[in-house]
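tool_call predict_complex ligand=zinc ion
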Amino acid sequence: MPRNLVVSKDYYSILGISRDAPAADIKSAYRKLSKELHPDKHKGDKEKEAKFKEVNEAYEVLGNPEKRKRYDQFGSADGPQFGGGGGGGFENFDFSQFTGGGFGDIFENFFGGARGGRRGQPDLRGSDVQLSLSVPFTDAVSGVEREISFETQIVCDVCSGSGAEKGSNLKTCETCSGTGQVMRTTNTFFGMMQQASVCPTCKGSGKVPEKACKSCGGDGRKKGRKTVTIKIPAGISSGQSIRIRGEGQAGKQGGPAGDLFVVIDVIEDSRFDREGDDIRSTAHIDLTVAVLGDHISIETVHGPVKLTIPAGTQSHQIFRIKGKGMPVLNTHRHGDHYVTVIVDIPEKLSKEQKRLFEELRESY
Ligand SMILES: [Zn+2]
Ligand SMILES: [Zn+2]
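tool_result ok
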């Protein structure tokens, strides 16, 4: 079962800046947007309020060089390396349980764990793996479960990750005499200093197998294929990532596994223009519909919806269909659908139609 999913937002697109924008640009983009979206100016506008929060959240990360660096690293294609945070303080998140409450918190947890590498402990943790996955637009609307399969380091099936040959006993590590630590003497500004570090041979356990597993060479893991089911939540956007804890590379000699990050790319749908949680589309109507009014059918991401066109509608007038936009991630809410109506002026008229128009002209 998928678990521990964390989604991050594309903070650069929220602030409308490029990935290589200098700090000054980030600041001015933030200033401009926070002024525009300030809740004092838009009392009761939930949408603006949400955007305002998003902008603040983005600036909190991108406005801080250290946080920005980590954020960039995480978004890179090379696969994130978050140090030995295997035992780190990540919250166990499950989308079905998570209902709103701000992404800042998740993000902090996320980086908090990254920062808090286990000092002085052996680096047995497997690396994180990053993959990208394209999903059809309709799946981003409904949410979907997908199976992904990839090559990585998996736990050795012969020794079950211990790295020891079957039946082989453990013996005391010779490098550290069983203490799990080695002392290193380093020359520092203050003179010679003794520093304890984890034994590289036994990785701190103080014991090594008498015979290493032949299948994995004592590593406890080997190359293999892994299949993971991931739950893509409704409302996900391109550039957001889903984290599945413990589904990255297997750890060395039974150490904790790394995490899997799946970066989502939502394939666009030519019918719909997505703007965050809102959808925009255009609809063509006849002159008579614009003048006299009518009901027309609008294709929304939730299927066709009836829209009332009032008499006297102007071309390029925009109509809002409430709650028919994208699902808002981790909530039961939806954005809105905005339809720009375009009035088609007839190019060819029948004789009868022309006569009627002329009659109409007379009546003006
Ligand atoms: Zn093995
Ligand atoms: Zn040792």
